Amino acid sequence: MKLFRCAAWLGLLLALGRLAAAEPVAADPFPRTRQLLASGQPVRIVCFGDSITGVYYHSGGRRAWCDLVGLGLRQLYPHARPELINAGLSGNTSADALRRLAADVLRHQPQLVVVMFGMNDVARATPEDYRANLRQIVQQVQQRNAEVMLLTPNCVSPEDPLRPLWKVADYAQITREVGRELQVPVTDTFRAFQSVQAVDHRAWLGLMSDAIHPNMRGHKLLAEEVVQTLTGQRVRLGDLPPLQPGLPRLLARLRAREPARIVAMKPYDLLIGPALRTIFPDAQVEVTAWDPAGKSLADLEVQAKSLGWAKYREQPGLARPDLFVVAVPAGALAASDPQFFHAYTWIINWSLSFDPRDWNALVILPSVAQPDQNPAQLAAEQLAREVILGQDVPWLQRQPRDAAPAAELLRRELAALLTAPPS
Question: Is the pTM of this model over 0.85?
Answer without folding.
Answer: yes
